[in-house]
Amino acid sequence: MIHNPAAGEAVENQRPPRTITVSVNNQQVELPEHRVTGLEIKQAAIAQGVHLQPNFQLSLKRGNRYEVIGDNDTIAVHPNQEFLAVAPDDNS
Q1: 3-state secondary structure the chain
Q2: How far apart are the first and last CA of the chain?
Q3: Is this model's pTM higher than 0.70 or not?
Q4: What's the mean pLDDT in 74-87?
Q5: From CA 46, how far away is CA 58, in angstroms rounded?
Q6: What is the largest CA-CA distance in the chain?
Q7: pLDDT of res. 89
Q8: Nearest-5° Cα angle at 21, 28 to 78
Q9: Is the pLDDT of residue 38 over 90?
């Protein structure tokens, strides 16, 4: 039997898009890609109902500390990573 993808049959070796679930401000956020920018993480969180603004500072939890992730910083995300987004401090 010949498999004809045009006839609606699934083609083997095609995987469904995989999302990565992370936590932003203790809420689960699905990210569409493995490599994303800080801004893309915040935009995905906002789109999925996390209450934050695009100008919030994003940090990634690493052990007992948080590492700031800039809007233009590209990082590789892994399932269950924890991010914290906080309002910018205007008391400079």
Answers
A1: CCCCHHHCCCCCCCCCCCCEEEEECCEEEEECCCEEEHHHHHHHHHHCCCCCCCCCEEEEEECCEEEEECCCCEEECCCCCEEEEECCCCCC
A2: 71
A3: yes
A4: 96
A5: 13
A6: 71
A7: 76
A8: 130
A9: yes
Hey, what are 36's tokens? 């994303």
Question: Are 83 and 22 a contacting pair, CB within 8 Å?
Answer: yes
Give pLDDT tens digits for 4-24.
555 555 555 555 568 999 999
- Per the document, the length of the chain is 92
Residue with more model confidence, 44 or 10: 44
In sign, the C-alpha dihedral spanning 54, 72, 20, 12 is positive
CA count, 13 A, side-chain hemisphere, 75? 21
Beta bridge partners of 36: 75
Q: How many CB atoms lie within 10 A of CB 81?
A: 18
